Amino acid sequence: xxxxxxxxxVVLAWYFGxxxxxxxxxxxxxxxxxxxxxxxxLLSAFRKQQSNVQxxxxxxxxxxxxxxxxxxRHQRFxxxxxxxxxxxxxxxxxxxxxxxxxxxxxxxxFNGEYEWNPQGGVVHWTHHDPENQHRxxxxxRNGHTYQ
Length: 147
Hints:
The chain contains two helices and seven strands. A hairpin with a 4-residue loop joins strand 2 (about 75-80) and strand 3. By secondary structure, it is α+β, with helices and mostly antiparallel strands. The protein has a five-stranded mixed β-barrel with strand order 1-2-3-5-4. It has helices at about 1-15, 40-45; strands at about 55-70, 75-80, 85-90, 105-115, 120-125, 140, 145. The protein has one domain: CATH 2.40.50.140. The protein starts with a helix and ends with a strand. Helix content is about 15%, strand content about 35%.
């Protein structure tokens, strides 16, 4: 009877907890002050094909891409998070400083708005918003905050 009660509690907790399973990868806590669930919002948004989701995560740069100079200029690079998922970061360098001397292998932490796409998604609005339409966000690398 106790076993059935325990199973029932676990099922109810899973159901009322939004269906997120404990099979999500453990967070990478390499950087001090990182939240305990750094990858969960990003991975959940990708799985559910959601956009306009504020995310906070960390990972290492796997590839630098040329700047996007169409409209507002964006520094672009791909980051792999602890789960192995990759995401494009598009950092507006007309509103914020370029992440200086960035190279493949660098560890970064980021906060921004996630937009779903089949390739893994893109995180943008990684900076302040002068019109206060988006939450303030940032990129952190080697103790420096770019916003």
